[in-house]
Predict the 3D structure of the following.
Amino acid sequence: MVTSLTRRGQLNTEVGRLERMLEIRAVEESIQTLYNDGHVRGSTHLANGQEAVSVGIASVLRPTDVVTCTYRGHAAALALGVTPEGVLGEICGRVIGCSGGIGGSMHLMDASVGLMPTFAIVGAGLPVAAGVALAAKLKNNDSVALTIFGDGSTNIGAFHETLNMASIFKLPVIFVIENNLYGEYTRINLSTPISDLADRADSYAMRKEIVDGQDVDAIINAIQSAVDFARAGNGPSLIEAKTYRYSGHSRSDPATYRTPGELDEWKKRDPLDIAANKLILKGELSEVDLEKMKSDIADRVAEAIKTVLASDGPELSTLMQHVSAKG
Amino acid sequence: MVTSLTRRGQLNTEVGRLERMLEIRAVEESIQTLYNDGHVRGSTHLANGQEAVSVGIASVLRPTDVVTCTYRGHAAALALGVTPEGVLGEICGRVIGCSGGIGGSMHLMDASVGLMPTFAIVGAGLPVAAGVALAAKLKNNDSVALTIFGDGSTNIGAFHETLNMASIFKLPVIFVIENNLYGEYTRINLSTPISDLADRADSYAMRKEIVDGQDVDAIINAIQSAVDFARAGNGPSLIEAKTYRYSGHSRSDPATYRTPGELDEWKKRDPLDIAANKLILKGELSEVDLEKMKSDIADRVAEAIKTVLASDGPELSTLMQHVSAKG
Amino acid sequence: MTVMRTRQAVIQALSDEMESDPTVFLMGEDIGSGGPFKATEGLIEKFGDTRVIDTPISEMAFLGAGVGAAAMGMRPVVEMMFIEFIGVALDQLTTQGAFFRYLSRGAYQVPLTIRAAAGAGMGFGCQHSQILDQWFRGNAGISLVIPSSPQSMYGLLRSAIRSNDPVVILEHKGLYGERGDVITGEAGIIPIGQARTVTEGSDVTIVAIGSTVLTAKAALESQSEWSAEIIDLQTLIPWDKSAVMKSVAKTGRLVVIEESSYSGGWGAEICSEVVTKLWGQLKTPPHRITSPDAPIPYAQELEKRYLPSSDYVVSQINELLKTGKSPAAWWEGAK
Amino acid sequence: MTVMRTRQAVIQALSDEMESDPTVFLMGEDIGSGGPFKATEGLIEKFGDTRVIDTPISEMAFLGAGVGAAAMGMRPVVEMMFIEFIGVALDQLTTQGAFFRYLSRGAYQVPLTIRAAAGAGMGFGCQHSQILDQWFRGNAGISLVIPSSPQSMYGLLRSAIRSNDPVVILEHKGLYGERGDVITGEAGIIPIGQARTVTEGSDVTIVAIGSTVLTAKAALESQSEWSAEIIDLQTLIPWDKSAVMKSVAKTGRLVVIEESSYSGGWGAEICSEVVTKLWGQLKTPPHRITSPDAPIPYAQELEKRYLPSSDYVVSQINELLKTGKSPAAWWEGAK
Ligand SMILES: Cc1ncc(C[n+]2csc(CCOP(=O)(O)OP(=O)(O)O)c2C)c(N)n1
Ligand SMILES: Cc1ncc(C[n+]2csc(CCOP(=O)(O)OP(=O)(O)O)c2C)c(N)n1
Ligand SMILES: [Mg+2]
Ligand SMILES: [Mg+2]
């Protein structure tokens, strides 16, 4: 069977990264049908349009580095290595889900590739990432922690406290804002009086960078610099990836609040297209190859869905397991 | 009897302001003896060295404006108008205390001059002040709210959240940092990677000003501009007053962590001396007047202490009063 | 009388209070667009954005702003969306707002309402499904209400807004879609602190609140061996002691149904108080039917198992009546 | 065996654990200088500033950092200074750290200790004097201990640090200065979840924790009409059911002494459980002696009145034994 770790290794080529982005898109697009068929409960938060950020991050980090991410975590989980079965299984509450079906869409995890259970409370992943980085520092190893969160989350207290503390302690942690212009149904200008969120780093004398969130190569460069900086003991960075989500905030949101034309504008800079076009331009991929890739991925995702739907829910006894060290 | 409101009016002259600063100093200096004699419990936090900030603020605000302040609130309370009997009575847990002896040193209050019960949790007064300002805005009156807090408090989440929200909502609220260089026993450079805290306003596109905290006239100017700005509907300001506390953080703190010589340096710029010298230079006060003023104040404070010590503790029944609307 | 869903009862109550009292205003994340449960839909259109205020994601700031505005005579209704979110802001309510009246000797009061969705059963996972009433206990300034129907949502929410002290209203997300008759207007208002007798009966008093009122009713209706007096507490803090005492004095038996974990659950306070005050009058031990001591799982079957079902309630009460002893919970010995 | 004050027992326990386990480190505001209660004095000199870490005033950040570091195999001891301060950061413990093990199916665990001063009687006012155990209830991942002596401070703190789940240890500020014999080393360690029988007796079981253990002892010693089995719970969450049951089965009477308000107090859970499980075996109703439902006042006489005194305990127990009924609290009818 493919492990998360081997899947992580597949990101070391441009083609591999494109494939993963395509896979993420395909996996997320399958969720609505699963929902319609009654397999998905609660809420799901898609990251389509934002795939490059997650794949870029996963391409740079080592599996021994640790990531904390939000409820909008499908892309990060798949990028870091979790299989489509692991993600879709979790969303469908099956025992083969990456959290055994206990967590659901908002709580994906895979310790083997450094993904902590994703956080459903805004801002909650930041202090924990700082703690991971602190542990690395105290243990004197060169691991880093990275935390992914949205533009809206830069208004929560934990953001401020954690950035300040990380700076003072020079912690090896990278703060990545996925600025997709909306926090739930609210456009950023209605919640935040500045538009370049990276500038908030100045309050903490922190290294900062703004990066094109639709270009996986740009992400890789930005993350790589921040990771190098952190591993060298120089402390944290704040990276703002300018990006966009094509779907509404969560399943129930038709996103009627968008500025007219905005979605179409952003789709012109689709991260999958950008990556594919680069490869095509360089002659490393043909249109035919791309179509083949897409259909292979479609097959694999369809296969994954079959596996998921054939799999059981977790046993009732798991409800009482891992509650505490005692059981 | 002198009311808080009449005492507030006494700040409309330079001499009145000097007198109040001298009074604050004298009141605070009496607390240690009261403690030694067993009249004070828990903790007290002196503001000596910082008197100009409170007096400057109180000179500008109207009694219908509202102030939220921290546990380091003796100076603010006295400046806003609370009598020495009210403050010392509260510190000694007497029924004539400004909170009826129920609150203690950390919880002074006087609604007649806009002092909300002072806040013993770091950062807690900021959101409440924003709410006061929001109420003024919704009621369409031109009251402002002002909140006083320390340098260390700029690292708490509530600071960040409140400044952002106040900016977005254009609330008539003034945020005043008393930067006395220490949060408890920790020097600012060990907790905060920047030294001009007013710069944190940039994260919220907020108006900012740094002001000499030892010069009451400078404070008045800074507060007046911010208040005018707020009353005109332009929104909040962040004001950083550079100041220093002569005592330790609280009674039990000998402040051994100070940089050598630092205290002496700051004492050279004592806010009381600065104010007195200005009046003397202008010929509006003689050394003799000043000594007379000081000894009158000493007498008044001694008198207040007598009154306090002659007064009773609150009745036992008050323990169960004002718990809820029902009683 | 109108038939409406619970979510509509929220809107109706807010709208009626806002119309009758200009100091009432709403504040929270995305309430303008109705929020994830559409429980504030249409209000911004009706009352404008100065009375329906969308906030940044800053619970500490806007909850505290509610405290401050309330102290200045406004009546803010602050939405926490999911009750777990108050975990980043609890201080402002429990340590600040709740003590304002006391510390100011009545000079300031805090007529603040906090609305939040709560409760399990909808697949929101362990961080979006709890009740968390424990966070508000032991704080005499705060009331906590949990409606069980469109009517009690309407009536309790209006009372909450009119209260001169902070009131937390937990809106069970499993009930938002439930329909029921609602008497609106003054006649539909339900006082804080008053329980409602849902059914009269003689064999056992069942104390429930929110979702467990429905569980109790379903349990009662699914059998015919015993009759039960179901008491919908409606207000959990402070709970209606006299209503419960009166009923248990009559039936001689007390069963409490709680949605949260056994340990730390509110039912213990009911049992303790009843047994102490009605010493010698109970025919069987007081008995609590609760969820197990575990976080709330996502997978459907597990979440279903987590919640006390009506079948489980029936079997527990059957056993209580048959043996005269408090039956073991399903998870006991199952470990 | 050494005589030391409770605050010194804190230092000794921290020091011993830090010496024996290099993953243990301390984090909090001003702990390097010993903090307001001098309960960490000398440790930074001994272990350096990488193991005794002073933080900015950012409870959310450093509590959460404790969670993250713990999940990576460290054993952080995070100080909250006063327990109220966790009100600005509760989410990180109760909604994040406590669920980490569950959500990760055991892949991550959170061996985190949270120390905080708690309790009234020292004139710190209503925002620095509470116990607040209620915030940690109903969350199966978390334990809560409250020592009552230098020995139990030493023994419980060491156990807390060794626990593989989060443990909150509430250090009563009124006890920091108390002296007592302490057995240090492994022999002095007290397991989480175990109560201690302080005195043997036959008329009544008194369940107490923290400061109320001292109140119970003083009450017992001040009279000679009845004998009491005083149980020091030591751990409140989860409390030692078998120790309490065993004692009440013997004495037939249960009295709980709590420092916090009557409503919402933890004693109700003890009473409910005991009465249910020992149905028919109690000679008198279970009885709770608590503080009133009010914030904690500053003025000395009022704060004294707020706390249950040993005289009050004696009079309550006298009345319970004489009348066989649960006596009214002092504030009942006094309103
Ligand atoms: C403390 C807290 N407040 C509110 C929420 C509800 N909520 C979930 S996602 C979200 C919007 C977050 O926006 P952003 O940070 O921009 O991330 P995005 O969803 O766009 O990725 C909100 C308000 C929450 N989960 N936690
Ligand atoms: C949330 C919270 N954390 C910690 C404390 C303890 N504490 C009280 S005052 C203080 C220092 C505050 O420093 P600063 O903001 O600079 O104000 P200053 O005391 O210097 O006026 C601390 C840490 C508290 N009261 N509340
Ligand atoms: Mg966003
Ligand atoms: Mg300071």
